[in-house]
Amino acid sequence: MPTGLLKDIAGEAPRNVALLGLDVGAKTIGLAVSDPGQRVATPLRTIKRTKFTKDILLLGEVIREFEIGGFVLGLPVSMDGSEGRRAQSIRDFAQEMNNHPKIFGADPFIAFWDERLSTVSVEEFVDKSVGKRKTKANAKSSGLIDKLAAQIILQGALDFLTKKS
After folding, report:
1. Which domains does the chain have, with CATH numbers?
2. Phi, psi for residue 118 in degrees, rounded to 5
3. Model-level pTM greater than 0.85?
Protein backbone atom coordinates (compact mmCIF):
# COMPACT_ATOMS: atom_id res chain seq x y z
CA MET A 1 0.00 0.00 0.00
CA PRO A 2 1.14 3.54 -0.54
CA THR A 3 2.54 6.32 1.59
CA GLY A 4 1.66 9.87 0.59
CA LEU A 5 -0.76 12.76 0.77
CA LEU A 6 -4.28 11.44 1.31
CA LYS A 7 -5.60 13.41 -1.65
CA ASP A 8 -3.18 11.49 -3.88
CA ILE A 9 -3.70 7.98 -2.47
CA ALA A 10 -7.35 8.03 -1.30
CA GLY A 11 -8.34 5.44 -3.90
CA GLU A 12 -6.00 2.93 -2.28
CA ALA A 13 -7.25 3.46 1.28
CA PRO A 14 -8.21 0.23 3.05
CA ARG A 15 -11.95 -0.12 3.68
CA ASN A 16 -13.92 -1.63 6.56
CA VAL A 17 -11.01 -1.43 8.98
CA ALA A 18 -10.16 1.03 11.73
CA LEU A 19 -7.67 3.77 10.94
CA LEU A 20 -5.29 5.28 13.48
CA GLY A 21 -4.77 9.04 13.48
CA LEU A 22 -1.45 10.32 14.80
CA ASP A 23 -0.47 13.82 15.85
CA VAL A 24 3.28 13.28 16.07
CA GLY A 25 5.19 15.87 18.05
CA ALA A 26 8.68 16.08 19.48
CA LYS A 27 7.52 15.12 22.99
CA THR A 28 4.21 13.32 22.47
CA ILE A 29 2.12 11.37 19.97
CA GLY A 30 -1.60 12.03 20.15
CA LEU A 31 -3.72 9.08 19.00
CA ALA A 32 -7.27 8.79 17.70
CA VAL A 33 -9.02 5.75 16.25
CA SER A 34 -11.84 5.40 13.75
CA ASP A 35 -14.63 2.90 13.73
CA PRO A 36 -14.22 0.14 11.10
CA GLY A 37 -16.81 1.92 8.93
CA GLN A 38 -14.47 4.95 8.94
CA ARG A 39 -17.15 7.44 9.87
CA VAL A 40 -16.17 8.68 13.33
CA ALA A 41 -12.81 9.48 14.91
CA THR A 42 -12.50 9.08 18.66
CA PRO A 43 -9.63 10.49 20.74
CA LEU A 44 -7.72 7.62 22.27
CA ARG A 45 -4.60 8.51 24.23
CA THR A 46 -1.33 10.39 24.20
CA ILE A 47 2.01 8.64 24.24
CA LYS A 48 4.92 10.42 25.90
CA ARG A 49 7.78 9.98 23.46
CA THR A 50 11.09 8.49 24.51
CA LYS A 51 12.99 6.54 21.86
CA PHE A 52 11.43 5.54 18.55
CA THR A 53 11.92 1.86 19.39
CA LYS A 54 9.90 2.27 22.61
CA ASP A 55 7.31 4.49 20.93
CA ILE A 56 6.57 1.89 18.26
CA LEU A 57 6.12 -0.85 20.85
CA LEU A 58 3.37 1.23 22.46
CA LEU A 59 1.88 1.93 19.03
CA GLY A 60 2.01 -1.81 18.32
CA GLU A 61 -0.21 -2.47 21.35
CA VAL A 62 -2.80 -0.01 20.01
CA ILE A 63 -2.57 -1.49 16.50
CA ARG A 64 -3.30 -4.98 17.83
CA GLU A 65 -6.01 -3.90 20.26
CA PHE A 66 -8.01 -1.95 17.67
CA GLU A 67 -7.07 -4.07 14.62
CA ILE A 68 -5.76 -1.01 12.79
CA GLY A 69 -5.69 -1.27 9.00
CA GLY A 70 -4.08 2.06 8.08
CA PHE A 71 -2.61 5.28 9.41
CA VAL A 72 -3.25 9.00 9.01
CA LEU A 73 -0.44 11.28 10.15
CA GLY A 74 -0.91 14.99 10.60
CA LEU A 75 1.48 16.85 8.29
CA PRO A 76 2.44 20.30 9.60
CA VAL A 77 2.59 22.53 6.55
CA SER A 78 3.02 26.29 6.62
CA MET A 79 0.10 28.60 5.92
CA ASP A 80 1.48 29.09 2.39
CA GLY A 81 1.45 25.32 1.85
CA SER A 82 5.21 24.83 2.01
CA GLU A 83 6.83 22.11 4.09
CA GLY A 84 9.59 22.73 6.57
CA ARG A 85 11.63 20.74 9.07
CA ARG A 86 8.61 19.64 11.10
CA ALA A 87 6.93 18.21 8.01
CA GLN A 88 10.13 16.40 7.08
CA SER A 89 10.29 14.87 10.56
CA ILE A 90 6.77 13.46 10.02
CA ARG A 91 7.80 12.04 6.65
CA ASP A 92 10.84 10.49 8.37
CA PHE A 93 8.56 9.01 11.04
CA ALA A 94 6.42 7.44 8.29
CA GLN A 95 9.52 6.00 6.66
CA GLU A 96 10.49 4.44 9.98
CA MET A 97 6.98 2.94 10.18
CA ASN A 98 7.61 1.33 6.79
CA ASN A 99 10.89 -0.04 8.15
CA HIS A 100 9.08 -1.96 10.93
CA PRO A 101 6.70 -4.39 9.17
CA LYS A 102 6.23 -6.59 12.24
CA ILE A 103 4.49 -3.70 13.97
CA PHE A 104 2.91 -1.64 11.18
CA GLY A 105 2.38 -4.34 8.55
CA ALA A 106 4.32 -5.41 5.47
CA ASP A 107 3.14 -2.53 3.29
CA PRO A 108 1.08 -0.19 5.47
CA PHE A 109 -1.29 2.47 4.18
CA ILE A 110 0.18 5.71 5.55
CA ALA A 111 -1.57 8.92 4.57
CA PHE A 112 -0.54 12.47 5.38
CA TRP A 113 -3.29 14.96 6.22
CA ASP A 114 -2.77 18.71 6.38
CA GLU A 115 -2.89 19.53 10.07
CA ARG A 116 -2.75 23.31 9.77
CA LEU A 117 -4.48 24.86 12.76
CA SER A 118 -5.58 21.53 14.30
CA THR A 119 -3.79 22.20 17.59
CA VAL A 120 -4.93 25.84 17.57
CA SER A 121 -8.54 24.66 17.09
CA VAL A 122 -8.21 22.26 20.00
CA GLU A 123 -6.65 24.89 22.26
CA GLU A 124 -9.51 27.29 21.49
CA PHE A 125 -12.02 24.53 22.20
CA VAL A 126 -10.34 23.71 25.52
CA ASP A 127 -10.26 27.39 26.50
CA LYS A 128 -13.98 27.75 25.83
CA SER A 129 -15.15 24.42 27.22
CA VAL A 130 -13.13 23.88 30.37
CA GLY A 131 -12.53 27.49 31.30
CA LYS A 132 -10.94 27.99 34.69
CA ARG A 133 -11.35 24.41 35.81
CA LYS A 134 -8.48 23.28 33.66
CA THR A 135 -5.87 25.53 32.15
CA LYS A 136 -4.42 25.05 28.70
CA ALA A 137 -1.13 24.00 30.31
CA ASN A 138 -2.91 21.28 32.29
CA ALA A 139 -4.74 20.15 29.17
CA LYS A 140 -1.43 19.92 27.32
CA SER A 141 0.39 18.10 30.12
CA SER A 142 -2.47 15.62 30.52
CA GLY A 143 -2.32 14.76 26.82
CA LEU A 144 -5.82 16.08 26.14
CA ILE A 145 -4.74 18.55 23.45
CA ASP A 146 -2.63 16.00 21.58
CA LYS A 147 -5.28 13.29 21.39
CA LEU A 148 -7.95 15.83 20.42
CA ALA A 149 -5.63 17.16 17.70
CA ALA A 150 -5.25 13.57 16.47
CA GLN A 151 -9.04 13.30 16.43
CA ILE A 152 -9.37 16.45 14.31
CA ILE A 153 -6.71 15.17 11.90
CA LEU A 154 -8.33 11.76 11.57
CA GLN A 155 -11.89 13.12 11.30
CA GLY A 156 -10.81 15.47 8.51
CA ALA A 157 -9.30 12.53 6.66
CA LEU A 158 -12.41 10.38 7.21
CA ASP A 159 -14.67 13.15 5.92
CA PHE A 160 -12.45 13.48 2.85
CA LEU A 161 -12.58 9.72 2.20
CA THR A 162 -16.37 9.73 2.56
CA LYS A 163 -16.69 12.50 -0.03
CA LYS A 164 -14.35 10.66 -2.41
CA SER A 165 -16.35 7.42 -2.30
Report:
1. 3-164 (3.30.420.140)
2. -65, -45
3. yes
